[in-house]
Amino acid sequence: MRFVLAAALSVASLPAFAAVDVQEVTSPGGIDAWLVEEPSIPFTALEIRFSPGAALDRAGKRGSVNLMAGLLEEGTGDLDAQGFAAARDALAASFRYNAYDDAVSVSARFLTENRDEAVDLLRRSLVEPSFPEDAVTRVKDQVLSAIASDATDPNAIAQQSFDALAFGDHPYAVPVEGTAETAASLTREDVVQAHRDTLVKDNLYVAAVGDITAEDLGTLLDDLLGDLPQSSDVAQPGDAGWNIDPGVEVVRYDTPQSVVVFGHEGIERDDPDFFAAYVANEIFGGSGFNSRLMEEVRVKRGLTYGIGTYLAPMEYAEYVGGRAASANSSVGELVDVVQAEWGNVAVGITAEELDEAKTYLTGAYPLRFDGNANIASILVGMQMDRLPTSYIDTRNDNIEAVSLDDIRRVAARIYRPEDLSFVVVGQPEGLGEDG
Fold it and tell me: How many whole angstroms separate alpha carbon 321 and alpha carbon 33?
C-alpha cells in the first residue's frame, strides 16, 4: 500500500496547465474549499491552512504554536505516537503538520479506497489530539536542540538578528520555535491553549485536488473539520511596523565568511503595483544568474557565490529583502555594491531585461502545476492571498501587461537606498567597530 501511494504521488498530475478547473465548494455545514477534480488516479491531496499561525503565540509563550503543531501526530485517544504512525502507514496515507508565523499547515495524501479511514484518523489528530506529557517533553527537547543548532549557524543568526531589529516586540521578531528560554518553559497547558487559539474554523482555508467530487468533498469537510470550534478569544497581534534603522549592524561571530541580510519596507500583496514590483525584483535580484545583483556582485567582482532578493508580503508586515555571503575581507565591498545598485534599479532597467524577465516568469508558472499536491498548495495559498480562482488564468496576462514605464515608476517607489538596512554576521573587515 505504501508503494501504491508513492507511485500516485510521483505521477498524479493534471494533463495540462489549461485544464486546471477550480470549483468553489461549500459543505452542508458551511465550510468553504476549492476543488480540482482529477479522477484519473485514485488519490487525493488535501491542503489545510489555519491562518494566522505562530503569530498568535500568547505573551511569554513564543514557540507554543510550533510545539503544538509538532505534537498533532503524537497521539489521539487510545493511540500513542507509534500507534498513530502505524495506523497511518497501514492506510498508505501521508500527513504533515507545520507551523509558520502566518499559518499552521496540514497536508494530507490518501488513496480513494482508504479515504474514509484516512480522514477519520486525520480528524482525530486535529480535533482530539491527546498531547501526552512524555511526547510534550520529547518534542520540546527536539525543538530546543534545533534552537541550539541555530545559535551556531551564521545564516540563522543573521536572519534572526535582522528580524529582531525590524519587528521589535511583535511575534515576527522571534523565530516560530521561540527562544531557548520560552521554549523550555512551555507546558502541556500552553500546548492545549495554542490548539484552542489556532485550529478554529474562522481561520480556515482548504483546497483539494484529485479523485473526489464536490459532493464527496462537502461531506469530507464536515466530517473532518466540523467539530472544530468556530473561533477563539486570542487577540490578533496587529501590524508589526518597521523598527530597524538604515545602515549596517555587525554581529561579531568567529567565521571566515560573513553572512549579510538586507532590506527595508516593501509592498503589500494586494497593492495595484505588486506585479510591476514582482517583475522588477526578478530583474534586479531574482532567481536567475542573469539578475542585476548577480552580474554586479558575482560575475564582475567575484564577491559571492550567490545573491538574491525577494518580496515578502506577510500578514502583518511587508518588506523587500535579500541575502548573500562573502569572505570577511570582501564583505564591505559587497555591502557598498548592493547599496549602489539599489539606487540604480529605477533608472537602469532596459526593454531587453524586461522581456527576458517576462519570458522566464510566464514560462516557469505552468511548471508549478506538476502534481496534485503542488496544485492543492497553490490553491490554498491563493485563498490566503485573497485571490480569485480566475488568478490562474490571468496571472501571466498581468505579468505581460507590465510596461517599462511601470517598472521604472514602481522601482523608484520600492527600492529606496536611503532606507536600506544591513545585518552582517561574521568578522567583516572595514565594517562596524573594526572599520
Answer: 33
pLDDT tens for 148-172 read: 999 999 999 999 999 999 999 999 9
Return the percentage of the chain with pLDDT > 90, whole number: 90
Taking the C-alpha atoms of residue 47 and residue 411, their distance in angstroms, rounded to an integer, is 35
pTM: 0.91
Q: Where is pLDDT greater, at 349 or 3?
A: 349
Nearest-angstrom CA–CA distance, 41 and 394: 28
- State yes or no: pLDDT of 243 exceeds 50: yes
Long-range contacts of 141-147 (CB under 8 A, 24+ apart): 142/70, 143/63, 143/66, 143/67, 143/70, 143/177, 143/178, 143/183, 144/180, 144/183, 144/184, 146/177, 147/175, 147/177, 147/178, 147/179, 147/180, 147/183
Residue 391's CB is within 10 A of a number of other CB atoms, namely 14
pLDDT given for residue 289 in this prediction: 75
- Decide: residue 181, CB within 10 A, 0-12 exposed, 13-18 middle, 19+ buried: exposed
What pLDDT is recorded for position 2?
Answer: 37
pLDDT, tens digit (0-9, with 9 covering 90-100), for 345-403: 888 788 999 999 999 999 999 999 989 999 999 999 999 999 999 999 999 999 999 99
